[in-house]
Amino acid sequence: MIQGCGSDVGKSTLVAGLCRLFTDRGLTVRPFKPQNMSNNAAVTADGGEIGRAQALQAQACRTPATVHMNPVLLKPQSDVGAQLIVLGRMAGTWTARAFQDRKASLLDVAVESFRRLQDEADLVIVEGAGSPAEINLRAADLTNMGLAREAGLPVLVVADIDRGGVFASLFGTLALLDAADQAHVAGFLINKFRGDAGILAPGLTQLDELTGRPTVGVLPYVEDLWLDVEDSLALEAPRPETPAAGGGDTLDVAVIRLRWMSNFTDLDALAGEPGVRVRFTRSPADVERADLVVVPGTKATVEDLERLRRSGLDRAITARASAGAPILGICGGYQLLGERIVDEIESGRGAVEGLGVLPVSTTFAPEKLLRRRRGHCPWLAAAAGGYEIRHGRVERHGGEAVLSAEDGEPDGCRVAMTMGISWHGALEHDEFRRALIGHVAAARGRRWQPGTGSFAAAREARLDVLGDLISDHLDTARLTSLIEHGVPADLPTITTEVRPCCAS
Q1: Beta bridge partners of 189
Q2: Residues contacting 122, CB < 8 A, separation 6+
Q3: Alpha helices, DSSP H only, in 268-351?
Q4: Among residues 372, 353, 485, which one has the least CA distance to residue 426?
Q5: Residue 422 backbone dihedrals phi, psi, to 5 degrees
């Protein structure tokens, strides 16, 4: 099990790399995350909903994703509440406190899913969430040490050295755990190291002496290795940028950074296209001058619509639509571009006026629509595909459809250069993505040359690079020993003395 000193320290990426490494060594491997909290989700082949990172980890294992790889998923839609997904299906909306009261019963669900994967695989690699040292949440924990103790898992704790304070983070995380939890921590990993390894070495030796646990590997900082990230903290990092092909122009894509943004990985394929620069923004000026503005998915459509109005971004978007400049809305972003939203499900606000730049209306239904889609884009003559995760049922009463599924059902709406679609992942389809960018470039008078590579192949290549990186920089003999023999029996317990803060 890979746990971390905090969010966005590299757990998901490490698990994906370990999955690819051991799959390539001939093992049947499965990823597992007992509980995830993310608005980046994917649809499995059997029509369930799981965290996006677990879908990628399944790909690293070269196996289809299933709901058992992430049996509990929380999708935040307010500061104190989230939609709860259990085994791929919605199980209501819960406040943080109510969810804490229910967690004990969900541990049984998580353990059963873990056992299923264990039965079908040689190796299950488990990803924790947040930090195991969140001592206020330790009771009824199913995310980190609760699962580790229930399943008898050896744990490696990873820290991001790029943030600073790496030794204090690792030692402090261990020291805050009780003795039974500490007994599962078999070693440490350090991520995103850059510099002279010889300077780091004395600290690693002292950490081993203080804790009785080795540092199993130090992974170097590698640029442009982002892979289907889940945490919005990762958006602070610069997106990769590939130079324009054939001396063409670079297109500027501004993505509205919504408060409850979901599935922002929809934009990864755009960012990987030569001559396309993608950035997330809340600036009306950026909306005005970009070549393409994308309004992404959101887990709180009405609330994000209200935030757009408070910030003035609504006026920037409607002015851009009136000027005929390209806009693309995806799922929730498509819905808020419409004329009307009736929402008694997520926000309970009832009928709300949308931005009014597309002739569509949306009514939220209690049952979430989860399905994978294939089809084409008639007006661009391009093959397309994707998946749907939405409560909103969109009715178009003007414009023209953007996509057509294999069963003939239309999706989306286009009026001039304002476009909206419900399919997540559509931009990952090379033919559709390049046709769309070419259409935008022509409208903006840009000389843009499409790339020739496949996004799917690029993702596979990154997984291969990640597997090789882990093979080169981790002590795979120690990893193999943990896999074969489980939790070491002789791990010492770190004790700390807590003193009164105001002793007389």
Answers
A1: 158, 217
A2: 27, 28, 29
A3: 268-271, 284-289, 301-311, 313-322, 332-336
A4: 372
A5: -100, -10
Q: Which of 257, 258, 254 is nearest to 288 (CA)?
A: 254
Question: For residue 309, how many other CB atoms are within 10 A of its CB?
Answer: 13
What tokens does 415 get? 């009026």
Contact 417, 406 (CB under 8 A): no
Amino acid identity at 346: E
CA angle 478, 482, 485 (to 5 degrees): 125
- Look at strands 123-126 and 29-32 and give their pairing: parallel
The pair phi, psi for residue 20, each rounded to 5°, is -65, -40
Q: What is the DSSP string of 415-427?
A: ETTEEEE--BTGG
Cα–Cα dist 314/49, whole Å: 31
Q: Round to whole Å and give the CA distance between 274 and 271.
A: 8
Q: 448: how many CB neighbours lie within 10 A of its CB? A: 23
What are 180's two structure tokens?
A: 């039974």
* Exposure string over 75-95, b if 16+ CB within 10 A, otherwise e: bbbbeebbbbbbbbebeebbe
Q: Which residue has 């606000």 as its token pair? A: 349
* Measured CA angle at 371 (ends 369, 374), to 5 deg: 135
Q: How far apart are the first and last CA of the chain?
A: 44
Catalytic residue of the set 184, 376, 391, 424: 424
412: which strand partners?
none
Query: Looking at the predicted structure, is the pLDDT value of residue 351 above 80?
Result: yes
Q: Which two tokens stand for residue 104?
A: 């004990």
Per-residue pLDDT band at 82 (split at 50, 70, 90): confident
Residue 127 gets which letter from DSSP?
B
- Name residue 42's beta-bridge partners: 50
Taking alpha carbons only, the member of 105, 121, 95, 137 closest to residue 32 is 121
Tokens 């008639």 map to which residue?
378
Q: Which of 331, 376, 429, 439 is catalytic?
A: 331
| Residue showing tokens 């953007």 | 402
Q: Work out the percent of the chain whose per-residue pLDDT is above 90.
A: 77
* 331 included as an active-site residue: yes
Catalytic residue list contains 473: no
In 237-295, at which residue ranges do the beta strands (DSSP E only) sit? Answer: 251-256, 261-262, 276-281, 292-295
Cα 152 from Cα 184, distance rounded (Å):
8
Q: How far apart are CA 327 and CA 325, in angstroms?
A: 7
SS (H, E, C) 10-25: CHHHHHHHHHHHHHHC
CA angle 290, 296, 301 (to 5 degrees): 130
- Convert the pLDDT of each residue in 138-157 to its tens digit: 888 889 999 999 999 999 99
At 503, is the pLDDT very low, low, confident or very high (cuts 50, 70, 90)? very low
Measure the CA–CA gap between 133 and 144, rounded to whole angstroms: 9
Per-residue pLDDT tens digits for 190-199: 999 998 989 9
- Cβ count near 461 (within 10 Å): 12
